[in-house]
UniProtKB/TrEMBL annotation:
This is Lysosomal cobalamin transport escort protein LMBD1. Keywords: Cobalamin, Cobalt, Coiled coil, Lysosome, Membrane, Transmembrane, Transmembrane helix, Transport. Residues 261-288 form a coiled coil. GO terms for biological process: protein localization to lysosome.
Length: 541
């Protein structure tokens, strides 16, 4: 009966996993179709963006699943369940490990091969509408550089030994033999881990830039809301009238046949461009004012405020926990030489305190960890959407509803793939024991030694309790196998966490000082054409 119940639970779990996978694919399709440009849409780039975004979300969802599976194999008293014998537990561990192998390999494939190829192919297609074979060759030529970088990272990870040979007089052949023995024993785990860790550093930079800002901007935007469409339209009408009067004054100067000065011509050109932008804003505001979606958003305004308060609480919980975790490493580790490793927890952070409490009521702890992971991803998407794609101080692309170029969507998905890799380490740095073992409990061997002494009519009893901790009683998550293998990455993540906290605080101050966003924020720019307004009904009606 217990075996049947366990099998039923596993089937239910797989069914829920299938539903979650279907929901992820639907969300990715809706998200990409919402933001991609209708005039520049490309089938290959659309499929690539949907696939990469789905891989990012599925990979982020694997951490809670991994923690749940190692915890589900044990009872609350610390004993293994009847069905969780050595073979079954090993099969579950291998399945999760192969899942990580597959997803991480797909991420490497997307980042170093598929996304660069599609990007360069589309760039060539825009410049030259001629021979398709020539466009493919050119795209492959540029993509070859990314493939070379990936191969170098895999080779470094495969053949750089983590353990130095003890024999000082060992020959070169013995050293080479040791390298291949380590490669064979790890089954390529070290090579893949080094490559993923290298990408995680890039993901750390992306998280500092986009996620830290998104964690502060998204909740406050929900709380403050947007300005009224009717009020903005009234202001826009006044601006149009003012610009038109200014244009009439300048044009009146040439009524008698006199040519305009160069300064007036420049002013006239700027005012005409300004007038075109204001009229586009007028069309957008009119469409939004009549839209049923705007009326629906106004009706659920209290719910948005509640969500905004909830999101800011999660953001503060995450940031305070990250600060205390980093402060603990600063005060109690051996410093840079030990890559800021500490044994145990000296300063308990709120997240590390909350997870053990929630473990008592299933499945509150998994809901919390899943909420944090998903919140990290969606705030990253909000940060990229608000800021656009930047290369240092140069703005490459904007992310706008219905007007995002295919190249920008590819960049967005690549950035999300990198941020997802960094998410796992950030959560591990906050709650290392929970990420390693989940809610597992272990058996405590107790030995009672009772000695009775009769002296002056009094009885004294002594009690001795011994609590040996056996690591073999707990199963470590497969996530941990990809973490903490290289000391220089750990040190880099440590300093990256401080930078993340600083950017979050700066973003929080800036977001608090800014007023309400425009109801058409980012929808109308000076470089838009009048043809870009033809599909307004698709988004607002």
């Amino acid at each position: 009966a217990k075996m049947a119940a366990a099998a039923s639970d596993l089937l239910t779990g797989w069914f829920l996993f299938g539903l979650a996978l279907l929901a992820i694919l639907i969300f990715c399709w809706v998200y990409v179709r919402k933001y991609q440009s209708r005039r520049e849409s490309e089938v290959i780039s659309t499929i690539t963006a949907i696939f990469a975004l789905a891989v990012a979300l599925i990979t982020s969802a694997l951490l809670p699943v991994d923690i749940f599976l190692v915890s589900y194999m044990k009872n609350q008293n610390g004993t293994f369940k009847v069905w969780a014998n050595a073979n079954v537990s090993r099969q579950i561990e291998d399945t999760v490990l192969y899942g990580y192998y597959t997803l991480y390999s797909i991420i490497l494939f997307c980042v170093f091969l598929w996304i660069p190829f599609v990007y360069f192919y589309y760039e060539e297609k825009e410049e030259d509408d001629g021979n398709t074979c020539s466009e493919v060759k050119t795209a492959l030529k540029y993509t070859l550089g990314f493939i070379t970088i990936c191969a170098v990272l895999l080779l470094i990870g495969a053949f750089v030994p983590l353990d130095i040979p003890n024999k000082k007089n060992s020959t070169e052949w013995e050293k080479v033999k040791l390298l291949f023995e380590e490669l064979g024993s790890s089954h390529g785990l070290t090579a893949l881990s080094f490559s993923i860790s290298s990408l995680t550093v890039l993901g750390m930079l992306a998280a500092i830039t986009y996620t830290a800002y998104g964690m502060s901007a998204l909740p406050l935007n929900l709380i403050k809301g947007t300005t009224s469409a009717s009020y903005e339209r009234l202001e826009n009408t006044e601006d149009i009238e003012e610009v038109e009067q200014h244009l009439l004054r300048i044009k009146s100067k040439c009524r008698d046949g006199r040519p305009l000065s160069s300064r007036d011509r420049r002013t006239l050109q700027q005012l005409e461009e300004r007038l075109r932008t204001l009229r586009r804003r007028e069309r957008h505001l009119e469409s939004i004012e009549k839209s049923w979606w705007t009326k629906f958003c106004e009706a659920i305004r209290p719910l948005k405020i509640v969500w905004g308060v909830f999101f800011i609480i999660v953001a503060l919980l995450f940031t305070v926990s990250l600060f205390l975790s980093n402060l603990d490493k600063t005060l109690h580790s051996a410093g840079f030489d030990s890559s800021y490793i500490i044994l145990g927890t000296n300063l308990t952070n709120p997240l590390n305190m909350l997870l053990p409490v929630l473990q008592r009521v299933f499945p509150l702890d998994y809901i919390l960890i899943t909420t944090i992971v998903m919140y990290f991803i969606f705030t990253s998407m909000a940060g990229i959407r608000n800021m656009g794609i930047w290369f240092f101080w140069i703005r490459l692309y904007k992310i706008r509803r219905g007007k995002t170029r295919p190249q920008a969507l590819l960049f967005l998905c690549m950035i999300l793939l990198l941020i997802v890799l960094h998410t796992t380490y950030m959560i591990y740095s906050l709650a290392p024991q929970y990420v390693m073992y989940g809610s597992q409990k272990y058996l405590v061997q107790v030995r009672f030694i009772v000695a009775t002494y009769n002296q002056l009519g009094n009885i004294f009893r002594s009690l001795l309790l011994l609590f040996p901790f056996n690591l073999d009683q707990c199963i470590v998550t497969r996530t941990y196998l990809f973490l903490d293998k290289f000391w220089f990455f750990r040190a880099t993540y440590y300093f990256g966490n401080w930078a993340f906290i600083a950017v979050f605080l700066i973003g929080l101050i800036v977001s608090c000082c800014k007023g309400k966003k425009s109801v058409i924020e980012g929808e109308v720019d000076d470089d838009d054409s009048d043809m870009s307004d033809d599909d307004l009904s698709v988004y607002y009606h």
